[in-house]
Amino acid sequence: MTEWTRLPDLASRAVGGGVVWANDELFAERENLIKPAEPVYQTYTFGHKGQIYDGWETRRRREAGVDQAVIRLGMPGVVRGIVVDTAFFKGNYPPFCWVEGAQAEGYPTADEITEWFPLVERSALKGDEKHHFDVAEGRRVTHVRLTIDPDGGVARLRVHGEPVADPRLLVPGIDLAALENGAVVTGCSNMFYSSPNNLIAPGQATVMGEGWETARRRDDGNDWVSVKLAAPGVVQLVELDTSHFKGNAPGWASVSGCDERTDPDAWFDVLPRTRLQPDTRHRFVVDSVEATHVRLDIYPDGGMARLRVLGTPTADGAAHLRSLWTKSSS
């Protein structure tokens, strides 16, 4: 076994990876590339586009060119090896592929990433086989681009490496908005498809139904959720996770806060209105500010998997948590 296969798969859906773009996915969806499970195959399972494959498959090209998919790593890091798996693609695998990496700030769209560097040079592929490629590049990678030449199907792409965290996101404290820590949803504009309590539930959402989703708005307003934090605290980082929401993610969002200890009606910006990407875990460092409540506004509507508000309880906030524990434990 290649030693680097013991390292985590930085692109896996299980750690928050996402396939943000592909130029073609007519026969099989691009998202299959990063499914954690091994690919499977069932004979005579036909959909309206033909045999159903557990992978990414493009149409047959009738002109010169290549097909591509861009993957946002769930855990950016240094890539040590890549597996291109053509399992069950026998007469429809691509003859060649190559893989590039990028180091991008924030949450760009695929076409906003303009600088790519090679991870795997143009290499020959075989059908129904796992191809292991060593990677020598030592730079931190946030996105990879898989190119297949000229077309065909790839079951899985594994990007093994060592996670490298952005130190700006390593803030101390707890999730002040976590349901399990005592936060409470105090208001919501719409919960047609699912409860806003899902927003602050433990763990990552595994499907769209485990998030909060509103009905489609047909007016000029926007949807929102308000949350009483588990304790008064100094907010330092906000996470807005649109995982699994692809055609129905909000276009933008903002987070405001208030401190009921001083003025419950004085709301202030925690995170100004910010563009969001579909199916993406966004993490934003914010100016440290004390709050007892936060309000998430999404524009105009849509779905959100999780809201996290990381920070440190104030002195009275910590005392409040200790008091709750003491009263309920006696």
From TrEMBL:
<comment type="similarity">
    <text>Belongs to the allantoicase family.</text>
</comment>
<dbReference type="GO" id="GO:0006144">
    <property type="term" value="P:purine nucleobase metabolic process"/>
</dbReference>
<protein>
    <recommendedName>
        <fullName>Probable allantoicase</fullName>
        <ecNumber>3.5.3.4</ecNumber>
    </recommendedName>
</protein>
<dbReference type="InterPro" id="IPR008979">
    <property type="entry name" value="Galactose-bd-like_sf"/>
</dbReference>
<comment type="pathway">
    <text>Nitrogen metabolism; (S)-allantoin degradation; (S)-ureidoglycolate from allantoate (aminidohydrolase route): step 1/1.</text>
</comment>
<keyword id="KW-0378">Hydrolase</keyword>
<keyword id="KW-0659">Purine metabolism</keyword>
<dbReference type="InterPro" id="IPR015908">
    <property type="entry name" value="Allantoicase_dom"/>
</dbReference>
<dbReference type="GO" id="GO:0004037">
    <property type="term" value="F:allantoicase activity"/>
</dbReference>
<feature type="domain" description="Allantoicase">
    <location>
        <begin position="16"/>
        <end position="163"/>
    </location>
</feature>
<feature type="domain" description="Allantoicase">
    <location>
        <begin position="182"/>
        <end position="313"/>
    </location>
</feature>
<dbReference type="GO" id="GO:0000256">
    <property type="term" value="P:allantoin catabolic process"/>
</dbReference>
<dbReference type="InterPro" id="IPR005164">
    <property type="entry name" value="Allantoicase"/>
</dbReference>
<dbReference type="Pfam" id="PF03561">
    <property type="entry name" value="Allantoicase"/>
</dbReference>
